[in-house]
Amino acid sequence: MNVDKKAKGLVTKKFNDFFYVNISEGNQLKEGVRFLCKSRKNVYFQKQVIVVGDEVIISEISFKNKTAIIETLLERKNLFERPSVANISNIYVIISAKEPQLNFSQVNKFLISAESLFVKVSLVLTKCDLINTQIKNQFIQRFESWGYFPKTLNLLEGNSYKYFLQELEKNKCSIFIGPSGVGKTTILNKIIPNLNNSTSPVSRKIKRGKNTTRNIELFSLSKNSYIVDTPGFNIPNLNINNKLVINLFPELRNQLFKESLNCKFRNCLHTHEPGCALDKHLERYKYYKELIDSSKNHHSQIQGD
Ligand SMILES: Nc1nc2c(ncn2[C@@H]2O[C@H](COP(=O)(O)OP(=O)(O)OP(=O)(O)O)[C@@H](O)[C@H]2O)c(=O)[nH]1
Ligand SMILES: [Mg+2]
Ligand SMILES: [Zn+2]
Known about the structure:
By secondary structure, the chain is of the alpha/beta class. The protein has 3 domains: about 1-75, CATH 2.40.50.140; about 85-230, P-loop containing nucleotide triphosphate hydrolases (Rossmann fold, 3-Layer(aba) Sandwich), CATH 3.40.50; about 245-305, no CATH class. It is about 25% helix and about 25% strand. It contains 6 helices and 13 strands. The strands form 3 sheets. A 6-stranded mixed sheet has the order 10-9-8-11-13-12, sandwiched between helices. Strands 1-2-3-5-4 form a 5-stranded mixed β-barrel. Strand 12 (about 215-220) and strand 13 (about 225-230) form a beta hairpin.
């Protein structure tokens, strides 16, 4: 049966010139059916091409062949860049306690980059079976001083994944980011029945991941809840207005909101200003200052050109 009707859908995968689109919930057409689509020419949102996570309108729908054409790209709430994923509601920065070794400066960069999308950011510590409780608690305490309450997972304890899934099912679209080999795909395989996506052990010699995941794909967890696995990747440089930098650090921004910080100057950037009331005795304050300085330099370079 061919139905030539329009429907709203969600782009779950992109390859070459093709897209997989799932028909959204609430449509009289079959929910959850996956259509192989091509896009009409000139389908953009603010001059940007269609990416995974985008909502689209499809037409020329063939139920027999499971094909359709993307006609329109709907308004995007946000765009995570490199890898490109649209309409994210929650970001999970996944890191491992060991193999690959926990690198705090790298975690900091992932967190800052994640926070710059201004959605909820959480931290997940995997491979906790490879460290003892004392070290685990030290890691947790350190991240708490950064304003995060990390979830801990390990392969030996099945329940930890079960509780994590319950949380993820409440989110509209979560994305996993983090270095290669930390176990992002392993989590997905644990929580989505019959998924069996490829994972591989970290290299024995250099204890680093092997960049196993290559594609970006959106998987359905339940009605209205999706999750995106990503390849381990390098963190792009940030280019952010220096007034917003404080929002990237929960331990600093909490001071602004919870304690109604009274700096002498209303536009205080909390660096060298007299009468600044921000508590600067925090581990990541130096990263905050670095970001302010680099965004200032960037700004003056642009003005100087
Ligand atoms: N001991 C232990 N090993 C784990 C745990 N979670 C994952 N691993 C192992 O870590 C290795 C890498 O896992 P992957 O899931 O491929 O890692 P990834 O983050 O998806 O890596 P990329 O796709 O390369 O970005 C696999 O051999 C997993 O079995 C854990 O909790 N404990
Ligand atoms: Mg992977
Ligand atoms: Zn201040």
